[in-house]
Amino acid sequence: LDTLYAATEEILSMTVAALDNDDLSLAKRIEPLEQVVDEMTEAIRNGKNQPSANASAGFSVARAAVTLGRLMAEGDPATGIPPHPTRALVWYRYALYLGSAEAICCLGDAYRRGYGLPADAERAFRLFALSAEMGDEGGQFALGVCCEQGIGTSVDLHRAFLSYERAAKNG
């Protein structure tokens, strides 16, 4: 796991540098590294040495990445951390690679609000639907809002009700 964490940290650092500096050549070097990390993560998930402990560790890392993404998205005046949407997206993307339904919901919210990337209500709706399908209560609630208000889809009050009901049962 130490190697995986170190590789991921390096990828995150490179991604932030590429985004901050609009460095296309650096961005092109990141994708092959992400594939290696994906393969390492998959090997861990598929039972190398204590699969249940590794799955639990993967969940904890994904949850931490989402939390860091939210901190970067919102900032924290108490600690002097300003909002930084680009860095928030980097953390959400990392959590997404770890299979986080919550990260999918966070990305949907970024698309809905146009926060750190162009606003796209239809893409937001699709991401909320995927997150909801994966069991994330935040995604279920956001899907309900989209269906109720016609965000990225047509108004569907029945589907909105069902989504709200699922969110209430899960959260």
Number of strands: 0
Shape, principal axes of CA atoms: globular
Structural class, from secondary structure content? mainly alpha
| Average of per-residue pLDDT values | 79
Q: Report the sheet with the most strands, covering strand number, pairing sense and barrel closure.
A: none
H/E element sequence = HHHHHHHH
Structural notes for this entry:
This protein is mainly alpha-helical and 171 residues long. Helices cover 77% and strands 0% of the residues. The longest helix is centred in the middle third of the chain and has 24 residues, at 51-74.
Give a quick summary of the entry:
With 171 residues, the protein is mostly helical.
Jot down its keywords.
8 helices, 171 residues, mainly alpha
Tell me the layout of helices and strands.
Layout: H1 2-21, H2 24-45, H3 51-74, H4 85-97, H5 101-113, H6 121-133, H7 137-149, H8 157-170
